[in-house]
Amino acid sequence: MPKVELHLHLEGSITPETALALARRHGMTLPATDAAGLREWFRFRDFRHFVQVYLALSEMLRTPEDFAFIVVALGRDLARQHVRYAEVTFTAYTHLWQDKGLTPDDLIAGLDAGRAQVRQQFGVDLAWIIDIPRNLSFDPQTGRYNGKASDPTVEMALAWKDRGVAALGLGGHEIGAPPEPFAHAFARARAGGLHSAPHAGEHVGPAGVWGAIRALGAERIGHGVRAIEDPALVDYLVEHQIPLEINPTSNIRLGVYPDYASHPLRRFWDAGVFVTVNSDDPPLFNTTLNQEYETLVDAFGFGANELERVSLNAVRASFLPEARKAALEAEFRAEFQRLRLELGVGD
Question: 90-100, pLDDT tens digit by residue?
Answer without folding.
Answer: 999 999 988 88
